[in-house]
Amino acid sequence: MKKDEIDKLFDELQGGFDTETPQEGHRLRFLEKLEQAKGSKMAHRGMTRWWRPLAIAASIALICMMGWNFWGGNSNVQQPHM
Fold this sequence. Notes:
By secondary structure, the protein is mainly α. It has 2 helices and no strands. It has helices at 5-12, 26-72. The longest helix is centred in the middle third of the chain and has 47 residues, at 26-72. The protein is elongated. 0% of the residues are buried.
């Protein structure tokens, strides 16, 4: 079976990755940034908790109002008496 081009590329680059050592404190800075990102997601998550039920309630209210106007609303058209 013939190898893919991507497989050939990785075979050629074998051993060429991770040649640099990270600077001192890299892991600590990474973990601090990760904690900050978690905090911002939690604040955003609290905002979305009330938004979704509100959107659903507004959609249901809109559908009910449209249905009321279409089927159950008072008709202004007078029907002829026979």
